[in-house]
Amino acid sequence: MGRQLNNLSGQLDIEVRRESKYIALSEISATNLKMKENLRELDIRFKNGTKEDKRVLQCLQPPCNLKILNIDGYGGERLPGWMMDNLHNHHFPCLTMIFIKNCKSCKYLCSFGRFPNLEYLFLSGLDEVEYVADNENELSQAPLFPSLIFQWDAKTEGMVGDDK
Where is the R13L1/DRL21-like LRR repeat region domain (predicted)? Predict the structure, then answer.
């Protein structure tokens, strides 16, 4: 299946309809999304939202030149390693928009402030968030949210803007 998707470009919508524990990781890994260099937008929706979603989402690592990422209904406690590690700003230098929605069990978020070109951040339905990584190991002189225009504040249900 992965070879058939080598020329994938533009936007890709993935809906995980069955429980993640019943999905073979070999099926997902074969798509090798991170090698789809022409993919610009990735929309991943989980219908059942279980803790096993973590292993599925980990295998759906997008290419480094992705511009828009949408994760909806994810049931894991933390975002996948490809978003959480200290080098995510190097992995996704083109990412301008992130939407994380209805991830009811998610407790740990990455430091979104280190994505160098992030302009829009929408966080909603993250009822269990306890911790946002601060990536203290990164270079301290790197500014947080250097390109952010709007950020959704899920706790106050309001929009926080930085007028440029």
Answer: 4-125
Nearest-angstrom CA–CA distance, 152 and 106? 17
Q: What is the rounded CA–CA span in Å between residue 67 and residue 80?
A: 18
Q: Where do we find the tokens 């030149």?
A: 65
Report the number of distinct structural domains present in the chain: 1
pLDDT in tens, 113-155: 778 888 999 999 998 988 777 655 444 455 666 777 755 555 5
DSSP assigned state of 18: S
Give me the helices (H) in 39-162, please.
53-59, 81-84, 88-91
Q: What is the pTM of this model?
A: 0.80
Q: What are the C-alpha distances in Å from 21 to residues 43, 79, 106, 108, 124?
A: 20, 17, 18, 21, 25
Q: Which two tokens stand for residue 16?
A: 């995980």
